[in-house]
Task: structure prediction
Amino acid sequence: MRAAILTEAQNLADEDVAINKRMAEHGAALINDGDTIIHHCNTGALATVDWGTALGVIRTAHEQGKKIHVLVDETRPRLQGARLTAWELEQYGIPYEIISDNMSGYFLKAGKAQKVFFGADRVAANGDVANKIGTYMLSLAAKDNNVPAYAVVPTSTVDLSLAHGGLIPIEERNTDEVLGIQFQGEPIAPKNAKARNPAFDVTPNRLLSGIVTENGVVYPPFDVNLKKVVKE
Result:
């Protein structure tokens, strides 16, 4: 029984890597030599197995010899971008700079970023995407400045039983993650302050240029084209 469980676990891990690498090849084709890319949250090997989704795309483009630069959103309040994504980029030798989440609009409007990439925790049948909080605002800024925004997801993340993203439940996490932020060793919020801490938001499909999957890049209309790549 132990051997069978270990074998199955290894098979699942190997399958995940193979899927991620196929996604990475499709996504890397969207990146041009010289692009600066804004990346949100953590979507690399630390989030998946060995390779990653959106960060796997960036890594593949780099390994193809494309000269790229990454602007890494901090991803408040858990700071996965600053803590995890930045560390991974260092391991791969990919040039990057950390920016606070509210700086993305500036770089997009100034023409200093050419692509936006992020992952997703769940995708509805119409292409609405639930991802780490802040993805919606980033996608809005990208759309307003005509910068393509792509979600990179395995087809297992697509839930065709959900008609739209409004049906995806949003987790509210402990508010200590917000109120516990310190400056020079002291909490920045008043002692009796209250907070809200939704962990995810939903990005409407109209803000996405495409959804990258292991079976290819899906373009609008998502409600029609997602069904073509998802094997039920």
